[in-house]
Write a structure and sequence with these properties.
- By secondary structure, the protein is an alpha/beta fold.
- The chain folds into 4 domains: 150 residues, Spo0b-associated Gtp-binding Protein, Chain: A (Distorted Sandwich); 183 residues, Rossmann fold; 92 residues, GMP Synthetase, Chain A, domain 3 (2-Layer Sandwich); 37 residues.
- The chain has a 6-stranded mixed β-sheet, with helices on both faces.
């Protein structure tokens, strides 16, 4: 027997991107013909696809871990690595995808809808793609970025036009079996139905789906019984049919009291924002089991009271099929009315896609204090991706990263945030990548050690002419001749004596 699962936790791990290749082309008479390292392939995505043929999340209950292939690294001779294959996971229509914190990511309400739940990593560029007119032979390549790895929750909310609600053993499963081709399990004990059952009803020109929701009891909205787990399946229904048992043998129960309990539980259940509350939707009442004489008498007794409350009441029997035709046509009219209202409802506000501004900032810099002093954290998709692509064992790759960050404006932002040379900078959340910041003079004029109002980068650096070099040479020669003459005058004046004079005096002695 196939079990029904309507909520699972799915652990997904998308493929990592392949690393770029560092290679130099070598051939006869061309020992260094230029870089030819290929790019790495992208990692495979994990995609959820809404399939009408899938009715349960059971496939992910036993196998909650799903992984997509990695991208292959690039190779020489300009050969790119292969891309990891995408993994498609079929889920029932009506599946809601939530992240680990419970925030809704997607609602797959239509057949064929697709949602990338885990995006694969980006492949790194090879040194052939990094070559420029100024960097003709890069000695480095970019690394592939890791794919998404995390946990998501899949929650199934049945999509049907009419929801059958009522106490356990009220005859909901028998009713859906009598009105449609569905064949749910039917037995004479409470909580026979352990999962919602769907059936398609054809009443004349009306065609609609009916959902048999497991029985509700008092306190279901607070977690009692099975109702709390399955009340979510009522959210998407446009109409409610209260199935009341007129032949119950439980003491203290009757159709009116059962209806009051169910209404209280429906009122206590919070629907998502933007949806109509459950009790504000069209509601009909079916007094079931009138094939029993005592039940028929009770139905005749309570029907006027329920009609006085404003409900349309139908006395039915799932055994003799009495009253089912009238009930089917009434439900079809309610469903058609709801569909027309939905079609006439105002169209949702148009979403306008605007391109990002040219001067939009792709990162943020904030100062964080700690026991070891102030550090400056850089957060942003680009800086974090660039750091993940950098091979920190290659000095040229680290310099390339510094140039990219400088062009992005990270250094200017660090200066505005109060960073100085030697400050601790972290790129990314958590521990991230930590380094001591050494600003470059090309982007941080505020840190240049020069007199106030002066900028050494603006000094003229022109080449001296031949006449200027000749004049400078003669000046040096004149200075040397003057220095020799000064020494000679000092010797003649007896201020100091030459070394050979001292040697002669020592010889005569």
């Amino acid at each position: 027997m196939v079990s029904f699962v309507d909520e699972v936790r799915l652990f997904v791990k998308a493929g990592h991107g392949g690393n770029g290749c560092v290679s130099v082309r070598r051939e006869k008479f061309k020992p260094l013909a230029g870089p030819d390292g290929g790019n790495g392939g992208d990692g495979g995505d994990i995609v959820l696809v809404a399939e009408p043929q899938v009715t349960t999340l059971l496939a992910y209950h036993g196998r909650p871990h799903r992984t997509s292939p990695n991208g292959q690294p690039g190779m020489g001779d300009n050969r790119s690595g292969s891309t990891g294959e995408d993994i498609e996971l079929p889920v029932p229509v009506g599946t809601v995808v939530k992240d680990a914190d419970g925030a809704e990511l997607a609602d797959l309400t239509e057949p064929g809808m697709r949602f990338i739940v885990a995006e694969g990593g980006q492949g790194g560029l090879g040194n052939a793609a990094l070559a420029t007119t100024k960097r003709k032979a890069p000695g480095f390549a970019l690394l592939g970025t890791p794919g998404f790895e995390g946990e998501v929750t899949l929650e199934l909310k049945t999509i049907a036009d009419v929801a059958l609600v009522g106490y356990p053993s009220a005859g909901k499963s028998s009713l859906i079996a009598a009105m449609s081709a569905a064949r749910p399990k039917i037995a004479d004990y409470p909580f026979t139905t352990l999962h919602p059952n769907l059936g398609v009803v054809q009443a004349g020109d009306h065609r609609f789906t009916v959902a048999d929701v497991p029985g509700l009891i008092e306190g279901a909205s607070e977690g009692k019984g099975l109702g709390l787990d399955f009340l979510r399946h009522v959210e998407r229904c446009s109409a409610l049919l209260h199935v009341l048992d007129c032949a119950t043998l439980d003491p203290g129960r009757d159709p009116v009291s059962d209806l009051d309990v169910i209404l209280g539980e429906l009122a206590a259940y919070p629907v998502p924002e933007g949806q109509t509350p459950l009790l504000e939707r069209p509601q009909l009442i079916a007094l079931n089991k009138i094939d029993v004489p005592e039940a028929r008498d009770l139905a005749d007794l309570v029907a006027p009271e329920l009609e006085a409350r404003g409900y349309r009441v139908f006395q039915i029997s799932t055994v003799s099929h009495e009253g089912l035709r009238q009930l089917g046509f009434a439900l079809g009219e309610v469903v058609d009315t709801a569909r027309r209202e939905a079609a006439a409802a105002p169209v949702a506000e148009r979403i306008v896609m605007r391109p990002k501004a040219v001067d939009a900032v792709d990162f943020t810099v904030r100062a964080e204090g700690g026991s070891y002093g102030t550090l400056y954290r850089v957060l942003g998709a680009k800086p974090q991706r660039w750091v993940a692509q950098t091979d920190f064992t290659n000095d040229e790759a680290v310099g390339y990263l510094a140039d990219r960050l400088a062009r992005l404006g990270v250094e200017d932002a660090l200066v505005r945030a109060g960073a100085v040379a030697g400050s601790t900078v972290v790129i990314g959340p958590g521990s991230g990548v930590v380094f001591d910041w050494e600003p470059t003079l090309t982007s941080t004029a505020e840190l240049i050690t020069a007199p106030r109002g002066a900028d050494t980068r603006l000094d003229e650096n022109r080449r001296a002419t031949r006449a200027e070099r000749r004049e400078a040479y003669f000046d040096r020669m004149d200075a040397k001749a003057e220095a020799r003459a000064e020494l000679e005058r000092e010797r003649e004046a007896g201020i100091w004596a030459a070394d050979h004079d001292d040697d002669e005096e020592d010889g005569e002695g």
